[in-house]
Amino acid sequence: MKLISIIILVILYSSVSLGSVENNYKTLELKTENKWMCGKIVTETFVDKGGRQHPEIQEYYFVHFNKKYFIKISESEFLGSLADYKNSYARIHATVKSGLWDGNDPNMQSRIGKYLVINHIERVEIPEKLLFIDQNNNSYEISPDLIKYIPIKPAESSSGIYSGGDSKEVKIGTDDFMNLFFLAENALNNGQLHLIKRIKTSSVIKIVYAETESNAIIIDSPEIQAFFTFLKKLLSN
Fold this sequence. Notes:
Helix content is 24%, strand content 38%. It is α+β, with helices and mostly antiparallel strands. It folds into two domains: 30-123, CATH 2.40.50; 129-235, no CATH class. The strands form two sheets. A seven-stranded antiparallel β-sheet has the order 9-8-7-6-11-12-10, with helices on one face. A five-stranded mixed beta barrel has the order 1-2-3-5-4. Strand 1 and strand 2 form a beta hairpin. The termini are far apart.
């Protein structure tokens, strides 16, 4: 009788465990989000559960503002090969999912977490520089390797007494430059933020490419605040 009770408990436990795995898998697969994202395509060597590296297996990731997403190629539908975009900056339309990375069978061992399914991908041209004038008319010249801060002087300010402080130069990397560019582009691409004439709380952004440039007067907005916050963070380093 005792043996029969143990067998029944084992069967019930197994049923509950398998049900939990299946339900958890279904729940994860339902969590999706479609959006445009800008960032960099990179590769990393596959590392198995035992910590062993397999250089013959290169996995693709999308780095979006220092957040790294695994790209599930088997579900992606874009034209071409990701190898053509390796170490390139890109604009993608993707579905953000949570689920299995290494397959679609919930009964098979797999890494699990957030990943991207890419629907469209296009390479992004790296600008030559960004120019920014903040609300107080302080200027910033930003290149892929350097930020130059040019403060307004009291004689140049509308009050005649305001000063932007001391000038400053800070070295940066291309990844940080491109993150600034993506934030600037986000503000420039939203025509509802543009003004014809400057007002007290507005800023100016210009993006300079090899052959073209774009610029606009931008109202105070979450988009411009995101750009300025990241710029100030880089200047404080």
